[in-house]
């Protein structure tokens, strides 16, 4: 079985089977497959392994994959880091509606879902947000800064999960952007992921 086929099969397995396979793989083989898997799923698999095996696989990764996956592993140590997804779209405030629609088609085809588009200023700070319905109601040449919402509900990596859920429910949101001290977006946390996490903890 070739590596790409193995990757496709492994991505569709549950975490218990994935963990068992990576326990048995040689580190180099495990690293090659981990590098082909979605980075967030790869981080989940590595977290489930022993520290020794995790280190062996990480050491065998190419530098680009190593950097991306270790970044996610470090985030997982924070209250909401393990819920963070990097499947979001952020655009400059100068973009027009037609520019955003083009980017949605170009950049988000592999995304599981897209609820909102986030708007950044010249310093890449988060300054606005709008949903897809609001986008489609505008004329093609309209700049996004003209209709974006500037009062953005945000969370941080150290925000407790209970507060995350409270904000999602209170403001009737499908996802929340996670920002750092410089007001730059790091990812988003979705309502579904928070609920799924709560169910797993309850079980």
Annotation keywords:
203 residues, alpha+beta, 3-stranded mixed sheet, 10 helices
Give an overview of the whole structure.
- With about 200 residues, this protein is of the alpha+beta class.
- Helix content is about 50%, strand content about 15%.
- It has ten helices and five strands.
- It has helices at about 5-10, 15-25, 25-35, 40-50, 50-60, 65-75, 95-105, 130-135, 160-170, 190-200; strands at about 90, 115-120, 125-130, 175-180, 185-190.
- The strands form two sheets. Strands 1-2-3 form a three-stranded mixed sheet.
- Helix 1 (about 5-10) crosses helix 3 (about 25-35), helix 2 (about 15-25) packs across helix 4 (about 40-50) and helix 4 crosses helix 6 (about 65-75).
- The relative contact order is 0.11.
- The mean pLDDT is about 90.
Biggest sheet architecture: 3 strands, mixed
Distance between the terminal alpha carbons, to the nearest Å?
36 Å
Order of helices and strands: HHHHHHEHEEHHEEH
**Level of helix content?**
40-55%
Number of strands: 5
Please tell me what the overall shape is: globular
CA-atom Rg in angstroms: 19 Å
Sequence of strands across the biggest β-sheet = 1-2-3
Q: Averaging pLDDT over every residue, what do you get?
A: 89
Q: Which regions contain 5 or more consecutive residues with pLDDT less than 50? A: none
- Strand content is 5-15%
* SS element count, helices: 10
Content-based structural category: alpha+beta
């Amino acid at each position: 079985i070739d590596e790409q086929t193995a990757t496709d099969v492994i991505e569709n397995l549950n975490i218990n089977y994935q963990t068992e396979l990576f326990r048995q793989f040689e580190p180099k083989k495990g690293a090659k497959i981990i590098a082909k898997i979605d980075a967030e799923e790869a981080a989940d698999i590595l977290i489930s392994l022993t520290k020794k095996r995790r280190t062996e696989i990480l050491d065998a990764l190419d530098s680009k994959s190593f950097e991306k996956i270790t970044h996610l592993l470090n985030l997982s140590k924070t209250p909401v880091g393990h819920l963070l997804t990097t499947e979001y779209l952020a655009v400059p405030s100068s973009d027009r509606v037609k520019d955003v629609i083009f980017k949605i088609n170009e950049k988000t085809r592999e995304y599981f879902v897209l609820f909102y588009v986030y708007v950044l200023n010249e310093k890449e700070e988060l300054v606005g947000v709008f949903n897809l319905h609001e986008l489609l109601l505008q004329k093609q040449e309209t700049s996004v800064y003209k209709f974006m919402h500037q009062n953005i509900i945000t969370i941080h990596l150290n925000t407790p999960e209970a507060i995350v859920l409270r904000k999602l429910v209170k403001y009737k949101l499908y996802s929340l952007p996670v920002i750092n001290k410089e007001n730059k977006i790091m990812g988003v946390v979705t309502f579904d992921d928070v609920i799924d996490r709560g169910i797993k903890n309850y079980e």
